[in-house]
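Lecture 7, part B: from sequences to assemblies.

Below are the input chains for today's worked example.
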Amino acid sequence: MTADTQPQLNFDCETGNYHTFCPISCVAWLYQKIEDSFFLVIGTKTCGYFLQNAMGVMIFAEPRYAMAELEEGDISAQLNDYEELKRLCSQIKRDRNPSVIVWIGTCTTEIIKMDLEGLAPKLEAELGIPIVVARANGLDYAFTQGEDTVLAAMANRCPSQAPETEEAKADRNAIQKLLTFGRKKEEVQQEASEYVDHPPLVLFGSLPDPVVTNLTLELKKQGIKIDGWLPAKRFTELPVLQEGTYVVGVNPFLSRTATTLMRRRKCKLIGAPFPIGPDGTRAWIEKICSVFGIEPQGLAEREAQIWQGMEDYTQLIRGKSVFFMGDNLLEISLARFLIRCGMTVPEIGIPYMDKRYQGAELALLQKTCQDMGVPLPTIVEKPDNYNQLQRIQALHPDLVITGMAHANPLEARGINTKWSVEFTFAQIHGFTNARDILELVTRPLRRNHALKDLGWEKLVREEATV
Amino acid sequence: MKLAYWMYAGPAHIGTLRIASSFKNVHAIMHAPLGDDYFNVMRSMLERERDFTPVTASIVDRDVLARGSQEKVVDNITRKDLEEHPDLIVLTPTCTSSILQEDLQNFVDRAQLEAKGDVLLADVNHYRVNELQAADRTLQQIVEFYLHKARKKGDLPEGKTEQPSVNIIGISTLGFHNNHDRTELKRLMADLGIQINAIIPDAASVHELKNLPRAWFNLVPYRELGMMTARYLQENFDMPLVDITPMGIVETARCIRRIQQVLNQQGANVDYEPFIDEQTRFISQAAWFSRSIDCQNLTGKKAVVFGDNTHAAAMTKILSREMGIHVVLAGTYCKYDAEWFREQVGEYCDQVLISEDNAEIADAIARLEPAAIFGTQMERHVGKRLDIPCGVIAAPIHIQNFPVGYKPFVGYEGANQIVDLVYNSFTLGMEDHLLEIFGGHDTKEVITKAVSADSDLNWNREAMTELNKVPGFVRGKVKRNTEKFARDRGFNEITLEVMYAAKEAVGA
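Predicted structure of the full complex, as structure tokens:
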């Protein structure tokens, strides 16, 4: 069969009324990831109440996160933006002394056309503290894309060459060393001898530290050395980006960052499927290996072994169907993995589809469907949630992966759900964590199995309209 | 610009949506960018709601920003009208979209031409009022809209109900223990022989609103929500208003006495004194608690109270008058209604604090070192840091404020619940101190440590660091599983690779 006669993926764009979390959500995980940062969200009460109430971050994040709440005077331009931001940032610098202040622009700063990018360099010079501007607004972006805007902004701050030798750096950090006395060095020790000689490689995407270690080890097994991560644990440790540095993403929602790295920093992007699921992780590593001309070692065995270890879970979902309403842009990767597990996917809703950045992932999805002999899913960009509910009612899928607003009502109508947001926050990347994805996916099925004899499937009175 | 870490009251549109989605068969359309529609998540998750939240966001994106909404909002209203046939569609912007200065009233007028149901624009200034004020205003707006409509159609029912009856105004979705208070107030009214004419907005139909004037009086249990409606009904329909929150034994009695007065002025002849006496002295446990030896031990203990006007004022009075607890500070975040609060609590506390700044309250608590705090989730958090117990008595709401069991704050059962809350807050505090003195009695942790010290396996530095990143509550399990795996395979040293291999093998 030639490529032309193969069934093609069906793309649809409903441009409907859909729900995702606001892109400023990224503050919730980025402030934890970048330990010396301070995030200042410049927006309204609506933004602040979201982070406080829906995300529940405010109370715990207090030391390194705050709202610059816009008031009537700011909106009507009676107040001077520069002076106002200077007042707030001076206070933050005095009270918290972070290495960087990240300004998160919102819909409101877009609408009142507040010139954050113009103000930041001036204030940065005056206060002597780096200010990074990210426009994580809901007019242009959905949920996880907030991280994309921050990383794209940070990509411009990465040094273009190693500033000084390691010794000099160690010397300068003598005081810091004293302060962190007793704290062991956490990064995996990278001995030069264990690695193949290859051009520098930088990974982009914010992952929890254990996952970073995990992926670092997987690549180390192939003799590949990671020269840095965007973001690093500290703003002061951003990776060096030179012309020709190879970059590869770990998450499907980072298309702007990828573009910035290629166009502004002249990096070479490795377009690979994403390291989600054993199939995706293998394909991701293989792609990186192939770029560096390395023959991958033991990957097939490794993948087989992971599948073997998950057999008890895959048994539960084989032959079942899963419907993605669309929320966090991880949908294509997750669908591809679940199809490989033996599931069918009638529809993948997704807030935004970058067919170029996700190209390798889409190709793998298509191939996976062929391998497994299942129909190709319809990919619906910007879906209309109301229409989706009608389709769910008609299809009655075994599982719906959905945002938090629809989960309880669907459960009440006897439809199994899993919160999409859990996949955003859980550690799902790499070989080792693949089982954790299935742990999440199978939970509603296992729960229902545990309760199956009770006969409590429908907990609403009439056939309620959706 | 204001540096803010915490908000006690939400933005205005949340108030409007709370009212709209409380009514039966009313739909709200938000004119808002993606992400501003988290109200649906809050309602679905916090209220554990079985039905889809009747709120749809008409998305404002870059396109709308560039060209204006054009037909989008109107289309979304008429579409929803066809899909769900709501009685009423309420249109609201958010802080963000309100500055676009689109003529939303025009959208509403145009949609009304086609829609079978009613269409209304929530009339709220998103930068001047908060959630509570907006909820109060939207409820009044909807009530006025339907009474006006009925009057125009000559549809207003005449006269009062035969039996004494009440409208309970202000019970709403996402309110602090509102669902339980609703049940308790219904019980109380039944005990008093008063018919419920209407409860609004929770589960009410807008078609019933025209019957509101038939009630003998309006009861507004919460000062934050319902006062505007009740005043409107008072001015336009001459309906008496009872605005005493029946929270605590003393105030519940005062509320009932006021109801008695209002009813008897209209020709009823009721005497609730025997009921109040019976409840207070023999049925309710709260009055007895006040006289019990347990409560004696609370005498003179210092407490800080902070919350919305209704709950903070009521709590201050209960602690001070009914339990002999020394309220060193009573505060509210309802700045817009500060005078009332001062007047209410002035004589029951040492100082009054009116503030929306959580740090100001936290500092005051740290300075005053009370034995207990009765506040919001924020003060609970402050209390944790300072090691002071805190009972949560007011919004902002949290999943913990939607208990499945029956936990009202108003009426006689509410008084019992408050006693439990107060007593448990203080005793737990005391227990903490005892534990500190005697070094605790839970030695499990120590045993685990002894066992792992005997371990013959050596964890290398990276693996140890990795292990320490595992959350505390499963760390022991991960450690045991990894060591078991290492022993089985004959590894002497545990490296990162061994750790991950173990994880893959065990599947944990």
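Note for the exam: Confidence is low (pLDDT under 50) at residues 439-453 of chain B. Keep this in mind when comparing with the next example.
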